[in-house]
């Protein structure tokens, strides 16, 4: 059971970076001494090694143009959740000796504040995500001091008021029909029963288990919905899983796809970020056409969920509230 110990006031958010720049042979760090950064660095280093081995001579070509956004937390310690989590952007980079390693620009936040913001994080922290993405993508050829100065100028949005954090996202949900989610990501609503069936079946073994220990991930399309679509997919998954204290590790490429991990990110996920396949054993890929007839998925959902998913005229807000 997590969260037995009462915490003091949340430590303020902190902006930082770590990684490689072509201007130097050194590893660049700013405000990157926390345990959450060490955990991210361990995963990223191992995941890059895995991708190199899996892709062989094709790795460099796919790596050079890769970039994305992320939400990440480290491992819990015994009965205690992680103290902090990360939200930010990464972009392929390397040093002046040709050694490859991404540049990561991040905001480090109190874990419980991130959990309280929940699925609204891609919207609430969009100013941070946009600034980090722009700098990681376009600042790699800067001198080191100039790059670090730009990082230090990024202002972290506050998560002190949980209700305020949700407000913009909740207001938007009331204006959008479910059909808009399906059309933006899939171009049609024909996949909707199969997609919900697979999300439900993926989370069912871990329902009610906070911070589950599984490498399973869901790949979902974003399309024009972008950060809003990422937020909705997080929301759907959190509601179906019945989690209230779990921050999901998420990686996405703007207007393309979201890789949503139910537990710690799998070592094979970086390879899937830079050159997606359709056969990774740890990923339920929900971006393509359904491989089964619609009636099979509708039956698997059961009468209540089937009737709910059928209503593409419902607002996103009404749909999500009905999920629980």
Automatic annotation (TrEMBL):
It comes from the Bacteria. It holds the Pfam family TagF_N. This is Type VI secretion protein.
